[in-house]
Amino acid sequence: MPEPAAPDAVVTSKTTLTEFLATAPEDISSGILERLQEAELLQNQLTRAQEREKIAQQRLEELDTSQVLLLLDLHMPGINGVELIQRLRQWRFNGHVALIGHFDHQMQDTAERLVDGYGLKWAGTLTSPLSEHKVRTILQACGGLQD
Question: What's the pTM value of the predicted model, to 2 decimals?
Answer without folding.
Answer: 0.55
